[in-house]
User: What shape does this take?
Amino acid sequence: MKHRKKSDLPTKTCPVCQRPFAWRKKWAAVWDDVKYCSERCRGLRQKTVNSEENPG
Assistant: This one.
């Protein structure tokens, strides 16, 4: 496999931190299902959803 520049890889935006993140080989088989840039953001998703449902 030929190496690609990181700028040539597909990207998505994390719904928790709103930062872009790039495709990783580790995610090759499940790229369509990847939503969060990290385990941290995946864990924070519940807090974000709960705080929007219960303001104050």
User: Anything to note?
Assistant: The longest helix spans residues 39-53. DSSP finds one helix and two strands in the chain. The chain has a mean pLDDT of 85.
